[in-house]
Amino acid sequence: MNSDLENLKISDRELERISGFDVSDILVGGIFGGFYRPSVFRSRSRSLQFLFTEVLVFALLFIFTLPIGFAVTRNSVNSFDQLPVVLLFFQATLGSAIVLLTTWNLYMWRRVQQMKPLLRMLDEVDQFNQILGAIEVIDRLNAAKNSQQSVSATLSDRQQVLSALNLTRDTLVAGLSTEKILRENRGLLVSQWRSGGKYRKQFGGDRSAFSQRSRQ
């Protein structure tokens, strides 16, 4: 990629710095404690990666819940019929792993609902980077042409496109920074809004009482 296009690209490291999250094509904030990106279901390859992640998490949860199975079947180890013991072990272990996996997915779904503004902006960043990739392909095609007139006209159009993309990049970065500030100070904003609501209610009541006294 050309240096001017490379400078315009919003990298994963820059996204992490601006948003405060580790951002990937599938998850935001990592496997545990993070949340998935709804855009994964729009691409077959990303959907398969998300499915693989689910399987990996389930395997890890199954390993972590093995002590539960051992604890449940501890008093049945010396039984002559081992089949019920084995079934009980897998029921306890698999059941615990499934419950934890469901809880993990519900937690991520809730986080997705809370982070919709950020997720929409991340999708816009993906589209922006895809446009840069398309421009790179066009540059390669133009480089293969021999017409000097065509190249000069293309360079003029390219500068206009790059100027527009530069403005778009600044808008995206500013939007991500604003979203992070609002997210990190959400509690303060809510408390201030509630305090302002009480003040408006009290002020409105005082003004209404003043109006009634004025009419009398």
Model description:
The protein is mostly helical. Helix 3 packs across helix 5, helix 4 runs antiparallel to helix 5 and helix 6 runs antiparallel to helix 7. The mean pLDDT is 81. The protein has one domain. It is built from eight helices and two strands; from the N terminus they run H-H-E-E-H-H-H-H-H-H.
Side by side, the strands of the main sheet go 1-2
Q: Let me know the average pLDDT.
A: 81
> Proportion of β residues?
under 5%
Main sheet: strands, sense, barrel: 2 strands, antiparallel
Low-pLDDT runs of 5+ residues are none
Number of domains: 1
Order of helices and strands: HHEEHHHHHH
- End-to-end span in angstroms? 78 Å
Structural class: mainly alpha
Overall number of strands: 2
* Radius of gyration based on Cα positions: 28 Å
Rough shape?
A: elongated
Query: Which percent range fits the helix content?
Result: over 70%
Helix tally equals 8
Oligomer: single chain
